[in-house]
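Continuing the series of single-chain predictions for the mutant panel. This is the parent chain; the variants come on the following pages.
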Amino acid sequence: MPVASLGAFILFLGFLAFNGGSVLAIVDGSTDIGEALAKSVMNTIIGGAAGSIFALGINLIVAMIYGETPYWSLLICINGGLAGMVSMCAACDALNTGAAFGIGAIAGLTLYWVSTVLKKLHVDDPLDAFAVITRPQGNPSLLDDFVHLGGQL
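Parent structure:
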């Protein structure tokens, strides 16, 4: 667990640097200097937190429904956070905080269900890399296009 936690910490910092650095609006004259950077970092953190909370929550709820012993899983928390951060990559500088939370929550839920389906199909994915990258990048990133435009639709 310590190695997984260290790897997650490194990935979380990497996502903050990637999403913050890929905005390229810090030198744009139309926005305040640093506003887009701060917003993208904030939305990345909020999306990752929502992904962790909802992945852990659905894990506990499903365990209670099936009569299993509910447990807190550090690996589900880590993967939910990573899925939430992955889902923020498309429009992290243009989202409202509520939209970032909602998209991160959907990413955490889809991570759990895709991971569960892969386990039922006996697909060998011990790190849940497919569930972290593929589904959250698909569904919530499509939502980014709808929610980040605000009143422009």
